[in-house]
Write a sequence for this structure.
């Protein structure tokens, strides 16, 4: 399949898409927390994979790790572009904002908040720790696949993953304690008014 893709075989690329689009989508959603952005990441990932097909190593195993690394880079580029866009939009005069009534659904709000907290905690990790965490835990790659995709030894991957998990656990615990404390303070303030 690698040789066919490198040669520009459209059928092979269709097979690649059919086989891995769902895995790329799930990885993209875990990174972005937004269904729509995840769809964009999938589209751009396969466009980028087609563009980079000549760089694909002729030998190797599954193409899933390669696609997930491409998706990671695409998601980062989209995040950077969105941040730049938001910085420009801050400078543009605003009209009256129409509220988003979809946000009223309590379940969606809670899920979105939890995912945002988790993405914030993951964002506090070093980039190489984020990469191993997202590939091993988020995308379910085994150590060998993730190490090959990142071009690092398995031992290095394992130590990075261990550090990332510990830091993430500590960050989530801190956020829960801070949230509990904020809730208690608000409750006390409301009871004294």
């Amino acid at each position: 399949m690698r040789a066919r893709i490198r040669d520009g075989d459209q059928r092979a690329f269709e097979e690649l898409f059919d086989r891995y689009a769902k895995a790329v989508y799930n990885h993209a959603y875990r990174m972005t927390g937004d269904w729509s952005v995840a769809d964009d990441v999938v589209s751009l990932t396969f466009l980028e994979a087609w563009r980079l097909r000549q760089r694909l190593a002729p030998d190797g195993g599954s193409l899933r790790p390669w696609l997930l690394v491409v998706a990671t880079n695409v998601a980062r580029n989209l995040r950077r572009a969105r941040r730049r866009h938001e910085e420009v939009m801050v400078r543009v005069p605003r009209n009256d904002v129409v509220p988003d009534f979809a946000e009223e659904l309590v379940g969606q709000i809670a899920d979105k908040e939890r995912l945002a907290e988790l993405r914030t905690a993951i964002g506090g990790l070093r980039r190489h720790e984020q990469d191993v965490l997202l590939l091993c835990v988020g995308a379910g790659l085994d150590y060998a696949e993730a190490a090959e995709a990142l071009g690092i030894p398995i031992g290095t991957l394992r130590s990075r993953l261990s550090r990332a998990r510990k830091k993430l656990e500590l960050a989530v615990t801190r956020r829960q304690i801070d949230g509990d404390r904020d809730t208690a303070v608000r409750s006390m303030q409301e009871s004294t008014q």
User: Anything to note?
Assistant: Residues 154-192 form the longest helix (39 residues).
